[in-house]
Design a protein that fits this description.
The chain has 183 residues and is of the alpha+beta class. The chain has 2 domains: 92 residues, Beta Barrel (Ku70, Chain: A, Domain 2), CATH 2.40.290.10; 75 residues, no CATH class. It is built from 5 helices and 5 strands, in the order H-E-E-H-E-E-E-H-H-H. It has a 5-stranded antiparallel β-sheet. Helix 3 packs parallel to helix 5. The chain starts with a helix and ends with a helix.
Length: 183
């Protein structure tokens, strides 16, 4: 059995240093590999930090390497942020479930060209710039509200949620969505 000091010794200096092995185009990293995001600032050498950040920004590259944190080694990507470096922990290749492994080959029938055109129109009517503040965690808000009400001694009435109706006519559903998006 290994004790905590032996595990820490195995990590060496990896807990203090991000070892970048290569620099890749940032858009090459498929988002399925991303796990968590951290912001990295300079500890001591601000000039080196700014130099790396600016070089990554200008070249549109991300550094890929390893970092040990909480007794675990992570594959990481480091890219330029506004005034910081952004560190993403990544899944190792053997942790990713590829689309080829999913059993979706039997999806039939192939959509009709008219359905694809209508779906494309719907997508184009809803195009907007991404703004994360437009999305609230309504589930969390509902659970917190439930906790507050329960703490006040209120009786909680659990109402069963109705399942959404699954329509067989995709074209009609798309037309209805388009009409709603236009109004």
């Amino acid at each position: 059995m290994l004790d905590a000091d032996e595990v820490k010794a195995a990590a060496g200096d990896r807990g203090k240093v991000i070892h970048l092995r290569e620099f890749v185009r940032a858009e090459e990293i498929d988002p399925v590999f991303y796990e968590k995001t951290y912001y990295v600032g300079p500890r001591d050498d601000e000039n080196s930090f700014r130099l790396l950040r600016e070089a990554l920004r200008q070249t549109q590259r991300a550094g890929v390497g390893r970092f040990s944190f909480h007794d675990r080694e992570y594959l990481v990507a480091v890219r330029a942020g506004a005034n910081v470096l952004v560190l993403h922990t990544l899944r190792f290749h053997d942790e990713e479930v590829g689309a080829a492994e999913l059993e979706i080959d039997g999806l039939t029938p192939k959509p009709a060209p008219k359905e694809v055109q209508m779906a494309g129109q719907l997508v184009l009517t809803l195009v907007d710039d991404f703004d994360s503040s437009a999305y609230d965690d309504t589930y969390r808000e509902a659970v917190l509200d439930l906790i507050k009400r329960k703490a006040k001694g209120e009786e909680i009435d659990l109402v069963a949620q109705e399942e959404a109706a699954h329509g067989d006519d995709l074209a009609a559903a798309l037309q209805a969505s388009l009409a709603g998006a236009r109004s």
